[in-house]
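Regression report. Comparing outputs from two consecutive submissions.

Submission 1:
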Amino acid sequence: MIVKAIKTRPLIPPKDDLLSIIKQSFLKFKLKEKSIIVVTSKVVSIWQGKCIKINQEAKNQKDELIKQGADFYINKRKVSPGCDVMLTIKNNILIPTAGIDESNANGYYILWPEKPFLAAKEVYSFIKEEFKLKEFGVIISDSHTTPLRTGIMGIGLAYYGFNPLRDYRGKKDIFGRKLKMSQTNIVDSLAAAAVYAMGEGAEQTPIAIIEDVGDVEFGEPFGMAQNECSLKIDIDQDIYSQFLKSVKWRKGCGK
C-alpha cells in the first residue's frame, strides 16, 4: 500500500474552494483506479463555511458551540481535574469538543463538516467527472484520541464509493476455527494511515492518495444510505455499552 500526502496552498477560513484545490493539486499526479482519496475534515468545513470567528470577549463562546454541536456531552468540571476539555459524542463518535478545532484556523473555530457523507459524495462526484475514474473511494478524516493511550491518530468521519468493512464472519482461521464476529473497519484503518502521512502541524498536506489498497470492494452501490449506518453500533449492542452508559451524559442542545 502506498500513501501519498498532497501539498496544497492553504485553505483560508472562513470559506475557501476545496474543489479547485483538488483539481489543481491532482493535475500533478496520474490518479490510479482503485485508489482512495482522503481529505481532512478541516478543509471540508472551510469549504462549507463552517467557521466561527473567535470572540475574545465572549468567555464561554467555545463551550456554547460545543454544546450546540454535540449529540451528548459532559461538562468540563465533570472531566479530569484541571482538564479544559469537554467530552462529547457526535455522529456516533466519541470525540473531545464535538470536533471543534482552533489549529491552523487563523482566528476561527472550525466546526465539524455539515452532513459529511453528502460532502464525501460531492467530492467523489467531482473527482469522477474531472479525472474520469471509475472505481475509487473518498474518506473524510479527522484526528482523535484513544482512551488510555497517549497521542492522536486518524478516524474516518464519512466515506463514499467502497464497502467500509471486510467481513471475516463464517471464514476459518489458520487452525480451522470458524470466525464469528471479526470484521475489519477499512475506513478508520485507512484514515489512520493517511492522517499519519498528512501530519498535524504546518505540513500543508490536507489530502492524501492511497494506492494499491487491496481487497476493497468498490462501487457507488455503497452509497450514502448504507454508509451512514454501516459502521454504527447501537449503544446497547456495543461491547463497551455498560461503561458508556455508566457515564451521565447531557443531551446536546437542539438534538
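Submission 2:
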Amino acid sequence: MEIGKPNPEWLRRQAAARAHQPKKIKLLILGESPAESGGWFYLPGAMDPVFQQICAVLFEEPPAGEKEPYLKELKRRGVFYAELKPDAPRKDEKLADYVAPLTINLGILAPEHVVLVGSEVYQAAYGPLAKAGVPVVEVKIAGPDHDAEFRQKLRQALVRADLEKLIRPRPVPKAPKQAS
C-alpha cells in the first residue's frame, strides 16, 4: 500500500459503521482494534466475538441468523461500537497513543455513556477520558473471549450507567398479514 493512501479495508469499515451510527448515542462501547481474522462488528458475514457478546447481553440471547436485524436494533436503541485503534489490527502499538485523537472524535459523537472493553483499553483510556469530562463508566470489562465475565461486567456497567433498560429481547418481526 502506498504511503498516504487510505487503507481500503478501513474505509469499508468506516462506511459500515456510519450506516449503523445512531443519531443520538446513548451507549458507546469502545473496543481495542479490528480483529486479524477479518470479521468485524458492522460488516456482514462472520459474527465476531465482540458482536456476539454484546448481543448476548443486550438481547438476552446470542445472535442467530443474519447480523443486519441486530445491527438495526442496536442503532434504534442508541448503541454504537467503535475501536480505540480503528485503522487496522493492533500489533505492538501503545493504545495510549490513540486516546487523544479518540477524545476529539468523542466530542463529535457526543455519547451519553462510554464503556471500555478489554483491560488494556481500560488502562490506557479510562483516566484520560474521565479527566477530559467524557462520561466513561468505571467498570473494567474483560475482553470478549472471557464469555461469562464479559457478560457479567457489561451488565454491571449498564446498571451503573442507569442503562439496564437497554437489556431486553430483540423484537420479533411481525409476520405479513395474509389476505382473507
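Expected: both submissions complete independently.
Actual: both completed, but the second showed a warning that disappeared on reload.
Relevant detail on submission 2: Residues 95 and 120 are 8 Å apart (CA to CA).
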